[in-house]
Specification:
OB fold (Dihydrolipoamide Acetyltransferase, E2P); two-stranded antiparallel ribbon; DNA_rep/recomb_RecO_N; ARFGAP/RecO; DNA repair; DNA repair protein RecO; NA-bd_OB-fold
Length: 304
């Protein structure tokens, strides 16, 4: 169909009107899909590669953990998720604060969900926020977390940490995503003390982002351990020759506990004394704040 030189044609005007109505109908269908949560694509449509294009409209499907929510207008929310294929994503969920919303309760913090997004263009992260048009629960970890204060505060700190380590939207962070899913699952089941689960998550988050502390060999010269001194600026334990001002001398039990949490030796971690756990938590918090350059607000409420 030629658009140039036909502006005066009645047939051309009718065609333009018909095309505009079809495009508007496709947009409304995509936005309104959130109210019909029973419709689900097959397994082959899931993940970051699940995208269907219809002109300027794209539908994406991905798995994600809800990190936090923000109120928007009278009935909407902005949902922040850490997804498997697209990293951190912020999307608008329309009408989820209404009492008749069929999928609003699924988009709460700690929820592991399968989400469908609608975005203009061929990229999920663009100029505007995408729309969350459909959500199905994979695992509702919130039920086993929010009923216990220690679990809730530890879980909130885990969500905030995951968001801070994925500050660039649209960049995949699969290791951080899998680490968060495993941490929330362990926390919800109550398999270990909440503060130990949190410290293990913080240490492993530091490790997958390139800030793994050393608890055996000297972080500066590599001298085999055990070494006595600990310095957050140096990257872990140091020998006497590499000791820097401001280093502390923690107990060997606290260092052994942190090493066990980092490597997944839960038998050793569960057997530690409370005083050594508190000492280790202090080291983890100081090390995390050093690399994040500012503290986590939720850590102040965590029970030690």
């Amino acid at each position: 169909m030629k658009w140039i030189g036909e502006t005066g044609s009645v047939t051309t005007a009718a065609r333009r009107l018909a095309d505009a109505r079809r495009a508007d109908g496709g947009y409304k269908a995509a936005v309104g899909a959130g109210a019909r949560s029973g419709c689900r694509d097959g397994p082959e449509d899931r993940g970051s590669v699940a995208m269907r294009e219809n002109g300027a409209m794209s539908l994406f499907r991905d798995d994600g953990i809800v990190l936090r929510t923000q109120k928007l207008g009278e009935a909407d929310r902005i949902i922040t998720l850490l997804t498997r294929g697209h990293g951190r994503v912020r999307a608008v969920a329309r009408g989820v604060r209404r009492t008749k919303s069929k999928f609003g309760a699924r988009l709460e913090p700690f929820s592991h969900v399968d989400v469908q997004f609608y975005a203009r263009g061929s990229e999920l992260i663009g100029r505007g926020l995408p729309l969350c048009t459909q959500s199905e629960t994979i695992a509702a970890y919130g039920g086993g977390i929010v009923t216990d204060y220690a679990r809730y505060t530890a879980g909130t700190a885990m969500l905030e940490t995951a968001e801070r380590f994925t500050d660039h939207e649209g960049e995949p962070a699969v290791q951080q995503y899998l680490l968060l899913v495993g941490g929330l699952r362990t926390l919800a089941r109550g398999e270990h003390e909440p503060h130990l689960v949190l410290d293990a998550f913080l240490l492993r988050s530091l490790a997958v982002n390139g800030y793994a502390p050393s608890f055996d060999s000297c972080a500066r010269c590599g001298m085999p351990g055990p070494n006595r001194f600990f310095s957050v600026a140096s990257g872990g334990v140091t020998c006497g020759d590499c000791r820097v001002p401001g280093s502390v001398v923690p107990s060997s039990e606290a260092i052994g506990l942190l090493s066990a949490l980092l490597t997944g030796d839960w038998e050793t971690a569960d057997a530690c004394e409370a005083r050594h756990a508190r000492e280790g938590s202090g080291l983890v918090t100081a090390y995390l704040h050093w690399h994040l350059e500012r503290g986590l607000r939720s850590l102040r409420y965590v029970e030690k």
